[in-house]
What does this fold into?
Amino acid sequence: MSYSRSPRNARKSGGGRPPRFEDNEDTIALLESVGPVVLPPEIESFDELDLSPVMRLAIAKAGFTKPSPIQAALIPYALAGTDVIGQARTGTGKTAAFSIPILEQLDSLEECRDPQAIIVVPTRELADQVAGEAARLAYGVPTEIAILSGGKNMNRQLRQLENGVQVVVGTPGRIHDHLQRGTLRLDKTWCVVLDEADRMLDIGFRPQIERIMRKCPRNRQTLLLSATLPPVVRRLAESYMSEPVVIDCCRNEMAVDTIEQRYFTVANDRKVELLEQLLEREDPEQAIIFCRTKRGTDRLHRQLSRTYHGACGCIHGDLQQRERDRVLQSLRDRKLKLLIATDVVGRGIDITTISHIVNFDVPQDCDDYVHRVGRTGRMGRDGVAYTFVVPGEGEVLTSIEQRINKELVRDSIEGFDPVPEVTAAAEAASAAEEEAPTEARRSLNPMTRKKKRRR
Ligand code: AMP
It folds into this structure.
């Protein structure tokens, strides 16, 4: 069976931009300064999008019936060749949102042996996941996808590039490596995706990203996905994107509604004990427990392994790539019930059976909180997130609440009375907020700063 996907040239001549979706609320000045802001349209089925029969079959095979908001909004723009900034968290279906239009427009390997699309992601785990999802959606059409990420066999990557690839998924460091060696050519690349752009810039990949962008043809399409749009991301967009539209999928949902978010106050030396009791009370299907440091992650892993033996794994940046892959596969296969992780590696995990998140250590910043908590409640499933707050961390709790525009619910377990210092700090902060609630929220959360709609 051979369906031809809409050829790439159809993209150029195709009917122009899809209509702009009306925003009936005040527009957000911040987003508008980057480009026109659109909100996701209500679409009930993939049939309402202009997709080829083979793609519809692949989507059905993947078990997707209704497009998620980012998919409903991004796919028509991407198919029309427009540059898009999608403000969307992980877990919202953003991978399929950019993969579907790319796959729809790929020329065959016979027609072009150099990469036509390049997807740049912050971590190796995310590269594997994105490539896996793209391969799944390429069902029915032979498609060469190469993963170019660090920690993976270089020779294999070189062989694959030599044999010809249509799509590259990789981390900025390794992609940049290949460009320097002259083993990767981007002059046929018509689409660049910067996935989790905020995180890539956080990690310090800006120089590599810029060099990659400069190696791509000027008339390419750029799709940028980011949970947040801080100034560094906006500057990147201004420098390397052409008249982008901004899709706002984060309005009113900095952390998904289906996730119950709770906190415990606890003395530092009783955290492990509290965690053990919490796990006993909750009996999670699968849980990820986030720690701040690699050593802390190892230590907690040793402690929990006494009770959970083979059902408890651990993952952090010091582990070999092979070991990280093995642990994640065990989690996917449900051999593991508990995974102890640090932020950088934990954030790419996309497993729908994660029912619980525990922030054993409070996250370093509020964005990390949003990303950690987003590991559960994937695609609208229920999830619970618990945060352990020790004395002196009350303010962190408050700024998390301001970031997500939602109060965390205090939880307790018998024998673990609320720790007074924490509670006092949190209450003082919330009392201050009560006096000027909206002002405090607005100044701290740039996403809620509004201005009057321009006509
Ligand atoms: P992502 O945000 O790309 O990490 O996707 C999160 C999860 O949702 C992945 O496991 C996807 O396979 C799944 N997914 C993506 N789109 C849909 C959809 N329209 N319906 C159901 N599941 C989806």
Q: What stands out?
A: The longest strand covers residues 259-265.
